[in-house]
Specification:
28% strand, Papain-like_cys_pep_sf, six-stranded antiparallel sheet, alpha+beta, 216 residues, endopeptidase fold (from Nostoc punctiforme)
């Protein structure tokens, strides 16, 4: 780790606006498990949007000497499957995907309108998510269940967005998701990450395993 002398802030996600969760001293050796893309940063080793995931969070690759300007580790979340193991969810990933698909509708449902996080809880068998908004849900998920910035979301994974109260939807595999409201208020239809970004202007944050505040 090489800075101008000051310690480098470790963040909860690959963004300069992500919450500070610690720091690493100049000259320290760090081990990172994977790399992802996020905000572009100019640091000791130039300009890059690559971030390294260390044990406590994310640091900009521009301050880490790796011997390369590109990636030198696997992509964060790559090849990982959805798993509800140890989370005490009433439904597993496959059952949640089946629920989402079977409840797709273009008709208005009051229980779906402006309640994306609630719908995700229903898919996993909970009566409520336990979080006040999707963004609050994202912020509460422990780091070991979170894959910030990763767009390869396995079926059953929860994809989160920022902006206001945020947004969340469930992956059904193949780059497709089931989301509330995107094709009309109170609807539940298939969409993509790009469509949420383009239609609503909400920044994509990443995906998580099905962890809910309701039972934690």
């Amino acid at each position: 780790m090489h800075t101008a002398g000051a310690s480098l802030t470790v963040r909860s996600g690959p963004h300069t606006t992500s919450a500070a969760v610690g720091s690493v001293a100049n000259g320290a050796t760090v081990n990172f498990s994977c790399q992802t893309t996020g905000d572009t940063v100019t640091g000791t080793y130039g300009k890059s949007n690559i971030w390294d995931k260390i044990s406590t969070g994310y640091v900009s690759d521009t301050y880490v000497y790796t011997g390369s300007d590109g990636t030198v580790a696997p992509a964060c979340g790559a090849g990982q499957a959805c798993s509800a193991a140890g989370l005490a969810d009433p439904n597993g990933c496959a059952a949640a995907v089946s629920w989402a698909k079977s409840h797709e509708t273009t008709a208005y449902h009051a229980d779906y309108y402006n309640r994306c996080d609630h719908v995700m809880a229903l898919a996993y068998g909970f009566p409520a998510s336990g979080s006040t908004t999707a963004l609050v849900h994202w912020q509460a998920v422990p780091a070991k269940y979170k894959h910030a910035g990763d767009r390869t979301v396995p079926a059953g994974g929860l994809a989160f967005f920022g902006g206001g109260a945020g947004h969340v939807m469930i992956s059904i595999g193949g780059g497709k998701f089931v989301s509330s409201d995107i094709h009309g208020d109170g609807t539940l239809t298939e969409t993509t990450i790009a469509q949420i970004e383009d239609s609503w202007g909400k920044p994509y944050l990443g995906w998580t395993q099905p962890w809910f505040q309701y039972n934690h």
